[in-house]
Design goal:
Radius of gyration: 18 Å
Order of helices and strands: EHEEHHHHHEEEEEE
Number of helices: 6
Shape: globular
Distance between the termini: 38 Å
Number of strands: 9
Length: 239
C-alpha cells in the first residue's frame, strides 16, 4: 500500500479549530454611490473555501492555527481575511463554472465511446467518474506527492439550477492511501474541525465505469471532485 501525508499536517493540529458556522452577514458589500448598497453572498451559507485556503496559507507559512473554537465575528480582521480567501477561492468565477459544468444532469453515468471525439471539438461530455479518475485525481496526487495540500471541490449536486451551486463544498486534501485500485483521500473539512478521520474513498480501477465516491461523514453524497486552483498569500491577520 502507498501512504502519503503532507508533512506536519493533520486537521487536529494544523486545521482551524472552529466549525464553518457563521451568522447571516453579507460576504461582500459594494456602495453604489449614494444610491444603494449591493450585497453579495451570505456567510451563513458557509465559508468553506475561505477556511480551506486559510489553512493552506497558514501551513505553508509555518503558522499554527489559533486555539479559538468559535469563528471570528464580523469586523474581526481574521473574519475579513477568511472572507477575502473565500472570494479568492472562486478563482474569478472559474471554480463556480467548474462546479456547474460537473453538476450538469446531461453528463452520463459511464464514459461514452464518443466522448473523446467530442473532446477534440472542444466539447466536454466526459462522465463524472472519468473526470475524477483520469483528469482530477492525478492533479490532486501531484500536489500531495510534492508535500503540498491540495484544494478540492466536492460536487454534491446534480442539477441545472445555478442556485444549487450552494450545495457544493470545498475542502483541503492532506494525504492518501492507495492499495491496488482502492483509493482513500484524507481530508481537512471545515465542517468537521479537529477530525482526523474524514476521508473520500473510491475505486480508480476503471475510469470508464461508474463510481460513487464514499464520504466518511454523514454529509450529502459526493458525486465528483476536482482540484481547485490555489495561489498562496501571506496570512498577515493570523500572525
Amino acid at each position: 500500500m502507498t501512504s502519503v501525508r503532507v508533512p506536519g499536517f493533520t486537521p487536529r493540529t494544523a486545521g482551524l479549530h472552529f466549525a464553518n458556522a457563521f451568522p447571516h452577514t453579507a460576504i461582500k458589500e459594494f456602495r453604489l454611490g449614494r444610491i444603494a448598497t449591493l450585497t453579495i453572498g451570505d456567510a451563513a451559507n458557509g465559508l468553506c473555501g475561505g477556511m480551506s485556503f486559510t489553512v493552506a496559507d497558514l501551513h505553508r507559512a509555518g503558522i499554527g492555527p489559533p486555539p479559538d473554537t468559535s469563528p471570528p465575528a464580523a469586523g474581526d480582521p481574521r473574519y475579513a481575511a477568511i472572507v477575502a480567501r473565500q472570494i479568492d477561492s472562486f478563482a474569478d468565477g472559474l471554480v463556480p463554472l467548474r462546479f456547474y459544468s460537473l453538476m450538469r444532469p446531461s453528463r452520463p453515468d459511464r464514459e461514452p465511446a464518443w466522448a473523446p471525439w467530442l473532446g477534440r471539438l472542444g466539447i466536454d461530455r466526459h462522465s463524472r467518474t472519468y473526470v475524477m479518475v483520469h483528469e482530477e485525481w492525478p492533479k490532486v496526487r501531484a500536489d500531495l506527492d510534492a508535500g503540498r495540500l491540495a484544494l478540492v471541490g466536492l460536487v454534491r449536486a446534480v442539477d441545472r439550477d445555478p442556485l444549487a451551486l450552494g450545495r457544493n463544498h470545498q475542502v483541503a486534501a492532506y494525504g492518501y492511501d492507495l492499495e491496488g485500485t482502492a483509493l482513500s483521500i484524507r481530508i481537512y473539512d471545515p465542517n468537521w474541525p479537529d477530525t482526523d478521520d474524514v476521508t473520500l474513498s473510491l475505486d480508480i480501477g476503471d475510469p470508464k465505469g461508474a463510481v460513487g465516491p464514499v464520504y466518511s461523514r454523514p454529509d450529502p453524497a459526493v458525486v465528483c471532485f476536482f482540484r481547485a486552483p490555489y495561489t498562496p498569500v501571506d496570512p498577515v491577520a493570523w500572525r
